[in-house]
Specification:
The chain is built from 18 helices and ten strands. With 407 residues, the protein is of the alpha/beta class. The chain folds into four domains: 93 residues, Response regulator (Rossmann fold, 3-Layer(aba) Sandwich); 148 residues, 3-Layer(aba) Sandwich (Rossmann fold); 78 residues, Helicase, Ruva Protein, domain 3, CATH 1.10.8; 55 residues, Arc Repressor Mutant, subunit A. It has a five-stranded parallel beta sheet with strand order 5-6-7-4-8. It has a three-stranded parallel beta sheet with strand order 1-2-3, sandwiched between helices. The radius of gyration is 23 Å and the shape is globular.
């Protein structure tokens, strides 16, 4: 079932073989039978700092075993024999990738064309943009177009410490092997002859940055992605300037979805058709009111958030997706979310005669209040960096203006 959906799947007979495969080849997802003593297996995976989700499965397994596996760290439990929809849901939930960039926005088209021109070179590439804009989708497209025979391997540096990032990237150091620990192949070696995508490269530890700089001419082509301003990171001493120079030989920036208003209806229609086909439902259409709501929303989660919202709408709607079918991931209606349009408090007549800095201050403070004090969401809506947001808020507080705090 997984193979029919495009996944590369293979079987191993026991936990020891599985661990050996993870140490040398790696995997994006493990489906492991409860008979393998999953709590012990999951402890080993954590001890060796392997970054892979494990999905527990079993035939008529006792509920206590399934609960114990999830409590030990399994992502979920899948009863066997599996239903095709459950397999699809597992792959979608743990993959969270859209198929392509889509749309016809000039900035996106130009970014993809620029990346394509250098697809068959070995030069490093840096892809920047907000979360959910399609950075990994573009990196995969570059790898496919490169015709490199090796695999496409991903390392996500988000949420891992410096020691783990070193282990994930370069494998087990010699001193660990002498201490009796099992050999471990790093992602850089796994991607030999292919492409290594380093997500959130700004979060690599300093030692890993130094070693990566020395390995960029190796057998794997390196593509790095980030949501941060790496030049700002360099000025703050958090990122090596020489590494940035090498990574940015080819730079591609993907715009946020709120700057691609003409693409929203196109992407929503493509996602709706795809999900309807997958769920074996007739392809729905969007009402005009629903399309207006989609265009007005600020999309802090960008294309990924739109994809997930449309999937929920396809499951809820009948032949026509109405505005009420558009719900956010917490179940609240889209109408309660963030919008790019100004509220009634900000009619143009109310702006005339005011200083620009006053209007900017009120817009930032109102957006922050609307987002419940969430600075990341507010900065995404306003199109400014989180650092700029913090500096602005600091100056507002110093001037005596109340600033909403995260709830």
């Amino acid at each position: 079932m997984a193979r029919r959906m495009g996944a590369s799947a293979y079987f191993v007979p026991d936990a020891r073989t599985l661990l050996d495969e993870l140490r040398t080849t790696g995997a994006d997802l493990v489906l492991a039978d409860l008979d393998l003593n999953l709590p012990e297996l999951l402890r080993t995976i954590r001890t060796e700092r392997m970054r892979v989700p494990v999905l527990a499965c079993g035939i008529d397994a006792p509920a206590a075993l399934a609960v114990a596996a999830v409590r030990a760290g399994a992502a979920d439990y899948l009863p066997l024999p599996p239903d095709v929809d459950l397999i699809a849901a597992a792959l979608l939930t743990l993959g969270e990738r859209c198929d392509r960039l889509g749309g016809c926005n000039a900035a996106v088209v130009n970014a993809a064309a620029h990346a394509s021109r250098f697809a068959r070179t070995r030069l490093p590439m840096l892809i920047s943009g907000e979360a959910g804009t399609g950075k990994e989708v573009l990196a995969r497209a570059v790898h496919q177009e490169s015709r490199r025979l090796g695999p496409f391997v991903t390392l996500d540096c988000d949420g891992i410490d410096a020691a783990t990032s070193m282990l994930e990237l370069f494998g087990q150091p010699p001193e660990d092997l002498k201490a009796g620990l099992s050999a471990r192949t790093g992602k850089l070696e796994q991607a030999s002859g292919g492409t290594l995508l380093i997500r959130h490269v700004d979060r690599l530890g300093s030692d890993a940055q130094q070693q990566l700089h020395a390995c960029l001419a190796g057998p794997a082509r390196v593509i790095a992605s980030t949501t941060a301003d790496l030049r700002q990171c360099c000025s703050e001493g958090r990122f090596r300037a020489d590494l940035l120079t090498e990574l940015s030989r080819i730079t591609v920036e993907l715009p946020p979805l709120r700057h691609r208003s003409g693409d929203i209806a196109i992407l929503a229609g493509e996602f709706a058709s795809s999900f309807a086909h997958r769920e074996q439902l007739p392809p729905p259409r969007f009402s005009e009111e629903a399309l207006c709501a989609l265009r007005a929303y600020a999309w802090p989660g960008n294309v990924r958030e739109l994809e997930q919202l449309v999937h929920r709408a396809v499951l809820l709607a009948s032949e026509v997706i109405q505005r009420d079918d558009l719900i956010l991931n917490d179940g609240s209606p889209l109408s309660s979310g963030s919008y790019t349009t100004l509220s009634a408090d900000y009619e143009i007549t109310g702006l005339v005669g005011r200083r620009v800095e006053e209007v900017e201050r009120d817009l930032i403070l109102q957006t922050l209040r609307q987002q419940g004090g969430n600075r990341t969401a507010a900065s995404a809506i306003l199109g400014i960096s989180i650092r700029t947001m913090r500096n602005k808020l600091r100056s507002f507080q110093a001037a005596g203006f109340p600033v909403a705090q995260a709830s």
